[in-house]
Specification:
heterodimer, A: about 270 residues, alpha+beta, three-stranded antiparallel beta sheet, B: about 180 residues, 3 strands, elongated
Amino acid sequence: MSQLKDKLQELKKFQEDASIRIQTLGQFNLWRENQKVEAKQWGRDKTVQLLQYLISNRQRHALHRERIMEHLWEEGDDRDFKVALHGVNKVLEPNRPSRTDASFVIRQGVSYQLDLEKIWIDVEALEQYVIIGNEAFGEDVTISKAAYRSAIALYQGVYLPNRIFEDWSSEEREKTQILILGAYVILAEIILNENPLESIRLAQCAIAIDKTWEDAYRLQMQAYIIKGNRPQAIKTYQKCADVLEEEYGIDPLPATKNLLKEIESI
Amino acid sequence: MAKKADQTASFMVRFNQIIFEEDGESKVQWRGKVSHVQGGEDKSFTDFNDAVKFIQERLADLTLEATKDESPEEQESLLKKSFSLWKTVAKEGPKVIMETIKDPRKQVANLQDQISYFGEDLKDKVKIDEWRNASRSDFNLIKESLSQLTQEVQRLNTKVDAISKSQKKTLGAKTTKKTIAPKKK
């Protein structure tokens, strides 16, 4: 279990020490040696898009240039790609001597990938925190809570909100949403008795992402009962039933209905 | 000619599986959400046909937009062709899934059909027969395991019956006999 604790600390330390840090959740920002890179330093939008594309596909090792171009350029040629790549490298390491290899964007022939050991990216860190939270769940609740809290702290909004209409970004957006929904609900469940108010808040965050997430309504109902707020617990059930009827035309699950019965009998 | 980006529609489909108990019976429910990436709209569904309908509507819009400069006759003809493709998907898609659930070997057959559709070149590259063999042996292994399990359950049944009879004799009272039905192949 101390291994997971070490991993958690390593991740925190990496977030503090990395020379390049990138925020993709809620908005897009990049810090180089703790200095935020301003919009005008990026030059063309395609430079930003190329880096965002490499982030979105960071776990698919070595992306072929042709494939990148196919997604980012309608009718681009090699020159467009080179210009954009040069722009990315210039932002990441403006003082790199000419004719030396780029150290953040690894190149292998005509394939490219980001060096995740050198660049800290919020969305990557969020996934790692959720993995630690899941692994520690049921074994060491303190580590699990700390990991989920760290993941939640990083979630400042949807992944690359200014690219929601670009299909190359949608897979990552969906994946992150599912991860964070899980983190909200599991943490809300872990702290239900010790901090029901925080459980309610976390469940509300999950519902704000997906209003049909039934587990979150159930947790809210339980948390309200612990707080002694019976009317609000019943109201939450009604809200859940209304949303499920409106979206799917179905009733809540038996577990949710049974919880309502328990609450009504109090 | 419209730009490639205007001729592309991407969809993200989320399925959420919920397994629950109701009236002493295990049930499964699928809740889904389909989102149109370029347009930003989404639709929740429990019936996959609703998702297909949502996709079809977005694609029809795409065809209409791309052919807005054509004559009404030409536009109608293109739209009909566009619809006929998606009717096939709506009809064949769920069928393929159901067949795969019922018989995993069907999945290989369906894949083989699709590969043949693209011609001989692809057929050479994809070693579909190896997949088929692997599938069959896996399937046989499952069948053998099931058959062993059935025999075990039958043996267990005999033992339970024997215990039950001996209890009846000893106690001389009426007891309820519990039997475990052997699993069907």
